[in-house]
Write a structure and sequence with these properties.
Length: 180
C-alpha cells in the first residue's frame, strides 16, 4: 500500500501515482509509475475522466509498457487520448500550463528503470524548483542506482533536492519483504 500523497512540495502541479482528491485534481500533469492498484487510485474514476476530458491539454505520462497495459483493459481505455508514453532513460521536456499567467512552464522528466514490475519506472523531475526523484515501487540490485547514467552529470551525481521514496514496507508490522 503506497502512502505517498500524490504531490511533491517542489512541483505541486504534477501528480504522481494518485488520481483522486481535491489537491491532486488541481495538478496539470500526471505521472504513473506502474500498474499496481495502490499506485492507480482514482485512475478509473468518472471524476478523473471528466477532468481530463475538460482539459485535453493535461496528460498522463508513463512508460511504453505501462501504456500498453492500460490500453488493453476496458477499465482504462478512456484514457487513450491523454496517455503519453515516455522512453526509459531519456530526458523529455514536458510543458505545464501555468494557470496564473497562462504561460507554459517546462519540466524535464526522465523515466528511470525501477526493476519492480514490467514497465515500472522512477521519475527524475528537473526544473526551476530543483531536481526531484520519485521512486514509486522499486527493487534494484545493490549498486544498480550508481550505474543509472541519467542520475549523473558527467562524473558527478546530480544534486537531488528531494527524494520521495515509496514506503510500502516502511511499517514495523511488516517483518518480511518478499524475494523476487
Amino acid at each position: 500500500m503506497s502512502t505517498f500523497c500524490g504531490l511533491t512540495k517542489e512541483y505541486p502541479q504534477v501528480a504522481l501515482d494518485l488520481f483522486s482528491g481535491k489537491d491532486v485534481l488541481r495538478a496539470r500533469t500526471y505521472l504513473l509509475s506502474h500498474v499496481h492498484t495502490d499506485h492507480m487510485v482514482g485512475l478509473h474514476s468518472d471524476v478523473f475522466a471528466r477532468h481530463l476530458k475538460k482539459h485535453p491539454e493535461y496528460k498522463l505520462y508513463c512508460s511504453e509498457v505501462t501504456r500498453e497495459f492500460l490500453l488493453t483493459s476496458n477499465k482504462y481505455c478512456h484514457l487513450r487520448n491523454s496517455l503519453v508514453a515516455l522512453p526509459i532513460q531519456q530526458a523529455c521536456d514536458v510543458n505545464i500550463l501555468n494557470d496564473v499567467n497562462s504561460e507554459q512552464q517546462q519540466l524535464q522528466v526522465t523515466l528511470l528503470p525501477a526493476g519492480h514490475y514490467p514497465g515500472s519506472a522512477m521519475f527524475l523531475l528537473e526544473g526551476h524548483a530543483g531536481n526531484v526523484l520519485y521512486t514509486g515501487d522499486f527493487r534494484l540490485k545493490n549498486g544498480a542506482a550508481a550505474k543509472i547514467e541519467m542520475l549523473h552529470a558527467g562524473d558527478v551525481v546530480k544534486p537531488i533536492r528531494s527524494l520521495y521514496i515509496d514506503t510500502t514496507f516502511f511499517d514495523p508490522k511488516i517483518m518480511y519483504i518478499p524475494d523476487r
